[in-house]
Amino acid sequence: MYKIKDLQEFISGEIDKEIGQLYLASPKNLYEPVGYALAMGGKRLRPVMVLLAYNLFSEKIEKGFPAALAVEVFHNFTLLHDDIMDHAEMRRNSPTVYKKYNENIAILSGDAMSIMAYNYLLQCNTSALAPLIQLFSQTALEVCEGQQYDMDFENRTNVSISEYMNMIRLKTAVLLACSLKLGALAANAPDRTADLLYVFGLNLGIAFQLQDDLMDVFADQDKFGKMIGGDIVSNKKTFLLLKALELSDSQTKSRLEGWISKKDFNADEKIIAITDIYNQLNIKEITESSIDEFYQLALDVYEEIGLADETKAELLQLANLIMNRDH
């Protein structure tokens, strides 16, 4: 079995090769932005998950590269379009694609990326090609559903926690789950094992997003890599905010809603005020408890996966890395 660090190096090398070809491709204004988006880097978490799952059933790891590239290109396509919708000017300390080029170029390059992802999938040498494409298509549609719910929530004041949990399942968790199952299907794994890997990834993905919500407020600014409190400033419906609204007495709820509705405010003052409310309501501890709940569900499924402990050890290591991250 390969270590996670090895898999990161493998997929980074493959992505670099693809970037090189994209910068040479024509028309330049279609393919160069794709290369630029991929070159922004990131943790490459999803393609590593594809390769890790593939490696559970095969040592010929290079045969898992097409599925891993499909997931990474698709993920970056969603980020490219998200940045346009969110009017985000920076990603990973670089100008977003639409800011570096223009909005029309970014839209079209994103469209191209979504199609390129399927071309990579078609290179997979597996007897499960139809289920593999069906899974990928369903996941792609679910990610779009999650993004739409997220945008709908911006204009709603009555979002429930159950609605929010469904949104993060669709927007974030299903792609992590898909990454593991995709790797398993590409390696012709048994259906039950592939399904268990999906459920493992789904629970891990929900824990991952809840942890993201938590870190946006309580992370170490120097390690987090972006402004602490960004979700608070933008009134983003996170688990923390929704739980605070649920638990607040009338006076505290009125203060929260006052900050949410205020158009003209000092960002630092707003972050401090709402964080104080979170502290009063023990929101940090409540969120940590929910994260632990989904992480434990993932670990329970991990125990069901019918592989030797030494074979699936890196899967557990990946889960630990995700849950112990500080940025």
Q: What distance lies between the first and last C-alpha atoms, to the nearest angstrom?
A: 27 Å
Q: Unreliable stretches, pLDDT < 50, 5 or more residues?
A: none
* Main sheet strand line-up: 1-2
Q: Which structural class best describes the helix and strand composition?
A: mainly alpha
Task: Briefly note the CATH topology name.
Answer: Farnesyl Diphosphate Synthase
Bin the helical content. Answer: over 70%
Sheet-strand content, in percent, reads: under 5%
**Number of beta strands:** 2
| Oligomerization state | single chain
Instruction: Say which CATH homologous superfamily is assigned.
Output: Farnesyl Diphosphate Synthase
Taking Cα atoms only, what radius of gyration do you get, to the nearest Å? 20 Å
SSE topology string = HHHHEEHHHHHHHHHHHH
Biggest pleated-sheet summary: 2 strands, antiparallel
Please specify the SSE layout and strand pairing.
Blueprint: H1 4-24, H2 28-39, H3 45-55, H4 65-86, E1 90-91, E2 94-95, H5 97-100, H6 103-121, H7 129-154, H8 161-186, H9 191-218, H10 221-224, H11 230-233, H12 239-247, H13 250-261, H14 267-280, H15 283-304, H16 313-323
Antiparallel strand pairs: 1-2
Helix pairs in contact: 1-2, 1-3, 2-6, 3-4, 3-8, 4-6, 4-8, 7-8, 8-9, 9-15, 12-13
Name its key features:
327 residues; two-stranded antiparallel ribbon; 16 helices; globular; Farnesyl Diphosphate Synthase; mainly alpha; 2 strands
Outline:
This protein has 327 residues and is mainly alpha-helical. It has helices at 4-24, 28-39, 45-55, 65-86, 97-100, 103-121, 129-154, 161-186, 191-218, 221-224, 230-233, 239-247, 250-261, 267-280, 283-304, 313-323, and strands spanning 90-91, 94-95. Helix content is 75%, strand content 1%.
